[in-house]
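Worked Example 4.2. Consider the chain below.
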Amino acid sequence: MLTQVRKIGNSAGTIIPAPVLKELKLREGDSIDVSVGDNCIIIKAAAGKPKYSLEDLLKKCNPKAPKNKELDAWEQTKPVGNEI
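Applying the procedure from the previous section yields the following structure tokens:
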């Protein structure tokens, strides 16, 4: 398939034809990996998004980190409606 390099702001880009997007199962907004090899531009679908468990995320938290003042104030605010 033949396509053109086009000016996009201060950069350049190209349109990826729909059949290529379909074959690679890519959609608008997906991440891709772009590299150069053998005088060719190589575009690959990026590895899938990492999956985290709540336990993994909590392990990265510092329980001794100082609280944000706004969060502390929000936690001390009394209910004003039917929140509880």
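The chain has a mean pLDDT of 88. The longest strand covers residues 32-37. Compare this with Example 4.1 before moving on.
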